[in-house]
Amino acid sequence: MYLPSDDSIFLCNTVNHYHGQQALEIGTSSGIILKELSKNFRIVIGTDIDFDSLKHSQTVLKSNGLICCDAASAIHNIVFDLIVTNPPYLPDNPNHVDRTLDGGPTGIEVSIHILSSVLDKLSEKGKILMVVSSLSEKKKLEDFIFENNLVIKQIAQKKLFYESLEIIEISR
Ligand SMILES: C[S@@+](CC[C@H](N)C(=O)[O-])C[C@H]1O[C@@H](n2cnc3c(N)ncnc32)[C@H](O)[C@@H]1O
């Protein structure tokens, strides 16, 4: 399980400015973000590929929906006002596979995969919040966003000593 870290707290402090009816988190792990979302949203659903993490967060998150699946692949017939993700965003480490950290060869491929999976789950005025690291190749993500006629806005930035994190908001 991914234990809450600087990036988790960073996203937590941002999602609490949003409210609405339905919210979705991709990559829930400990449930720290989902718990924050449940304060301002009526229905909150989280997905993760790691079943053991979800089993753990179930004890913390009682009434929220948790689904073990790839990105939003098991979610149908519902749209969300807010979709958030703190994806694995580091370039793959060839010596050690860790799906909580490995974001693909340039660190951004899993983020793009998650984004493409949630696009048809976004309500008309819905927003997507995503954590992006300076260690990944953000240009590829920006290209994907522009190709899909979406709008990108930087909402927050945080400098750590080894990287800089930002939260981007994506909308139609
Ligand atoms: C950096 S951790 C973030 C955990 C938590 N949301 C937080 O902020 O502390 C990324 C999480 O995404 C999950 N994950 C990775 N690839 C995924 C995928 N394709 N679909 C769903 N979850 C995924 C990992 O198992 C991990 O729990």
Summarize the structure.
With 172 residues, the protein is of the alpha/beta class.
Descriptive report:
With 172 residues, this protein is of the alpha/beta class. It has one domain: Vaccinia Virus protein VP39 (Rossmann fold, 3-Layer(aba) Sandwich). It is built from five helices and seven strands, in the order H-E-H-E-H-E-E-H-E-H-E-E. It has a seven-stranded mixed beta sheet, with helices on both faces. It is globular and about 35 Å long. The N and C termini lie far apart (33 Å). Bound molecules: S-adenosylmethionine. Residues 2, 4, 8, 11, 26-30, 32-33, 47-50, 53, 70-71, 86-88, 99-100, 110 line the site of S-adenosylmethionine (SAM).
What descriptive keywords fit this protein?
single chain; 172 residues; 7-stranded mixed beta sheet; 31% strand; 5 helices; Rossmann fold; binds S-adenosylmethionine; globular; 7 strands; alpha/beta
Radius of gyration: 15 Å
CATH superfamily placement: Vaccinia Virus protein VP39
**What does the largest sheet look like?**
7 strands, mixed
CATH architecture: 3-Layer(aba) Sandwich
Indicate the CATH topology: Rossmann fold
Instruction: Count helical runs.
Output: 5
What share of the residues does DSSP label as strand, in percent? 25-35%
Approximate shape: globular
The sequence of SSEs as H and E is: HEHEHEEHEHEE
Would you state the CATH class?
Alpha Beta
Output mean pLDDT: 95
**Low-pLDDT runs:** none
The helix content is 25-40%
Ends distance: 33 Å
Which molecules are bound besides the chains?
Answer: S-adenosylmethionine
Read across the widest sheet, the strand sequence of neighbours is 3-2-1-4-5-7-6
